[in-house]
Amino acid sequence: MLKPIFLFLISIACITQAIAQVPMGRMAYIADGNYRDSDDIAATPVGLAILRAMGLEKKLVHYSHSCDLKPGSGDPGGPFREKEMQISSDGTAERWGGFEHITFFNALRATDATVNDLVKHINNSTEADPLWIIEAGEPDIMVMALKKSDRAKAKFVHIITHHPANDKGDTYNLEDVFKEGVPTANIHRIPDQNTLLRKKLSEFHWARDHKDSRIKWLWDRVNLAQSTEMKYPQIVGWADISDAGMVWWWATLDKGGDEKCDFPKIRKLLEDYVAKPVMSISFSGNPRGLEVHSGKGGFTIVASSEPIQLEVVNLQGKVIHHESGRLKSTFIPVTEKGMHFIRLSQGNFRINTKYVSR
Fold first, then answer.
1. What gap in Å lies between CA 276 and CA 94, rounded to an integer?
2. What's the chain's Rg over C-alpha atoms?
């Protein structure tokens, strides 16, 4: 993200730890977007898409936005940006799938719930399963959670930052994490990601022109973030997804952490992902043996020994297919592209899942 640079020097300014021996663990992503800047409206969807495309979506255990708890003097942000941050997170999860396990918190409106959720994940941390916090906004929520957490767990918390503007909060600064037991070596300051991930809007037109609705969605959010409607003139005409570079770095820890994420790398990852054949899905633990297997162009209901009710619903809420009765190895075609919701019931047993038609 691009922000005014504060004259804020702390002892960790040059700390970068060799991370080859540190397990990937889990991720917590804390973004602002509500005040000062609007680029998080773009960076959050891209970051989530990166996780999904790399198969790491379940590693994300906490996400919160609007973590800037107090407006600055004459700040142009406000509730309209909070709304767009919620749309960016919920909308991306809905379209890309895989994030059903987490809640996307508005940290300003639900501060206690946000902090308590982060406390839970800090306290679950171990040497073998550390928590990596993406500092995509001010550090207040992070420090508040550390203060409420088991201090013995703080040494298993790692923090990724790429811009000094995020290190200064309304009440707390990044250096305050040291007082709560986070080792200085656990601060990972990677190079400013604006260098490669803040480019002219035209360099993101590949997403605008893509045939896949999930990638077009990323364009929609990038385009909105830079619009005059968001009242952040510094990025008008620019595609700024710089905070997603921290997600990319963490996601490539097994290779030492790639600090040079750029638009071509992200494009290749996402285009390769949406071009893959649909992966199979199945359900276990159902005493009636009901299974659902997805495939290209639709999915198959397998070995339904009792009558079922089935609905396939598109993103607009329209039921595009309905089946009932005893179905054995029945293929259900889905011709519309994009995300669909599968609703199945068999007696008292319910399945709600998603299917992506490519």
1. 19
2. 22
- Is the CB of residue 85 less than 8 Å from the CB of residue 65? yes
Tell me: pLDDT of 25 over 90: yes
8 Å CB contact between 32 and 40: yes
* Distance, CA of 243 to CA of 70 (rounded, Å): 21
Which pTM value belongs to this model? 0.77
Residue 295 C-beta-side C-alpha neighbours within 13 Å = 11
DSSP class of residue 212 equals: S
Q: Which amino acid is at 2?
A: L
Residue 217, both tokens: 């969605």
Residue 10 has pLDDT above 60, yes or no: no
Using DSSP, state whether 161 is helix, strand or coil: strand
Supply the pLDDT for residue 95: 86
Structure tokens at 297: 């162009």
CA 165 distance to own-chain centroid: 21
Per residue in 176-207, is it b (16+ CB within 10 Å) or e — as a string? bbbebbbeeebbbbbebbbebbbbebeebebb
User: Quick one: pLDDT at residue 268?
Assistant: 97
Secondary structure of 76-142 in HEC code, one letter for each residue? CCCHHHHHHHHHHHHHHHHHHCCCCCCCEEECCCCHHHHHHHHHHHHHCCCCCCCEEEEEECCCHHH
Estimate the crossing angle of helix 40-53 against helix 213-225, to 10 degrees.
Answer: 160
Report which residue type is found at 62. Answer: H
Distance in angstroms (rounded) separating the CA atoms of residues 139 and 28: 12
